[in-house]
Amino acid sequence: MPDSEEKFVDAMTSVKKIAVNIALPQTFDLKDEEDCVEEWNLFKMQLINYMKITGLDRESEDIKISFFLTLISRKCLKEYSLMKIEDPSQLKNIVAAFDERIIPKRNVIYERYKFGLAKQESDESVDKFVSNLKSLAKSCDYNTMEEELIRDKIVLGVESNDLRKKLLSEKDLTLQNAVDISRLFEATENRMRSITEKQESCTKDETVFISRGETP
């Protein structure tokens, strides 16, 4: 058995002793679905954590690469065999090549355009609106300005003008303050709407009784 194979077997034996109760990262497969990027990012996170816990991150690059290749599908292996990788003896370079293959090139101007158009829909909750803004902002490369711009977009994009006035009246408004104020406003509006609907229902019932000559 060649030395490289012996080292791999020894490393795997050592890993098995440590990783008896630790699940292996799920095999990654290239898919056409939109969630392929998310699946790849999750796979990388699991891979890094597993290698740290088991000590594989301290093994040689050959061992790490062999382990990585056992966790990707046959389709990925075919892609790997066709990749032109600068210094393929380093796992980080192989992962970077897969990043380039899987993660689409972003048009930052277009991503910021989509962020700029975002507004709260009539049936959209505050939490859902804020979550959508945060998701859109991730692709905009706003860096240290991200929270401020999300805050500004909440003020500009909320459906209620009354809420907008309230947010604009706040001094030193932070993103968290904007979210908290918006949530409270939404909860109050929902409660008031519920009370109004109950009152209207009672009024209708009273009208029916009166028209029948009955006492409610």
Automatic annotation (TrEMBL):
This is Uncharacterized protein LOC113471851. It comes from Diaphorina citri (Asian citrus psyllid).
